[in-house]
Amino acid sequence: MKKNIITKSVGSIYRSIFLPVTKKVNAKVSASIPKTQLLEKHVKNAKLLPSRKEMLDLFPKNAVVAELGVDEGTFSEMIMNQTQPSKFHIVDFWGSKRYNQMKRQKVETKFASQLKDGSVQINLGLSTTVVHDFPDNYFDWIYIDTDHGYKVTHEELEAYKDKVKSGGIIAGHDYIIGNWDGVVRYGVIEAVHEFCLKYDWEIIYLTAELDNNPSFAIRRL
Ligand SMILES: C[S@@+](CC[C@H](N)C(=O)[O-])C[C@H]1O[C@@H](n2cnc3c(N)ncnc32)[C@H](O)[C@@H]1O
């Protein structure tokens, strides 16, 4: 009974105070994000895949690869096991309370032998700073999973565009309007569409997970 009353009060505070503020903030963020309409040529070869696992199956093997934003390396392990990169750059700054240096240590433990033989390298820092470590036409493909907001995703796409070989792939996570749990407005979809239109890239894969956010992959037309 007491528990019920507390739950109802928390729910009512959430609906009357937190939700309206969040809605207002998100509406403002949403309005500030440029909206670009893709053309048929940008989607006509797009293939819908069950999950990013199947997407990895279609990516080049023994390739030069980067994952931007790795947390403790769960997806990095999938990349490693499924695609055996010839060189795998792990890019992260591990600079927040949630994604901290403990996560970095986990990655270092996970890839200890590959870090030793040089097939895996940690490029520590913000993705848009670390980008200067890489020559042009270097990567076969990259996977972006950092901030998910419009501004950073836009900057990352611009920064890594010339770092990817011609015919190379830029992929990423969170091709979705926002985070339902944290009620955060993302901007990956808009940044990707704008980039495709501006530089003539096409969407080649989208994924359709129910237990994870969707991923995208794009390539020069
Ligand atoms: C959602 S987690 C990555 C999850 C991982 N890709 C996976 O699927 O297992 C996001 C990571 O991006 C990192 N990050 C956030 N913004 C970044 C930025 N601007 N540059 C580099 N790393 C960033 C965080 O430190 C965190 O480790």
CATH superfamily of the largest domain: Vaccinia Virus protein VP39
Strand composition percent:
15-25%
Strands side by side in the biggest sheet? 1-9-10-6-5-2-3-4
Distance between the termini: 62 Å
Alpha plus pi helix count: 8
Largest sheet: 8 strands, mixed
Task: Reconstruct the topology from this structure.
Layout: H1 2-32, E1 47-49, H2 52-58, E2 64-68, H3 74-83, E3 87-92, H4 101-110, H5 112-117, E4 120-124, H6 127-130, E5 139-144, H7 150-160, E6 164-173, E7 178-179, E8 184-185, H8 188-199, E9 201-207, E10 215-220
Parallel strand pairs: 1-9, 2-3, 2-5, 3-4, 5-6
Antiparallel strand pairs: 6-10, 7-8, 9-10
Helix pairs in contact: 7-8
The chain binds S-adenosylmethionine.
S-adenosylmethionine binds next to helix 3 and strand 3.
Protein described:
With about 220 residues, the chain is an alpha/beta fold. Helices cover about 40% and strands about 25% of the residues. The chain has eight helices and ten strands. The strands form two sheets. It has an eight-stranded mixed sheet. Helix 7 runs parallel beside helix 8 (about 190-200). It binds S-adenosylmethionine. S-adenosylmethionine (SAM) binds near residues 69, 74, 92, 96 and 127.
Outline:
By secondary structure, this protein is an alpha/beta fold.
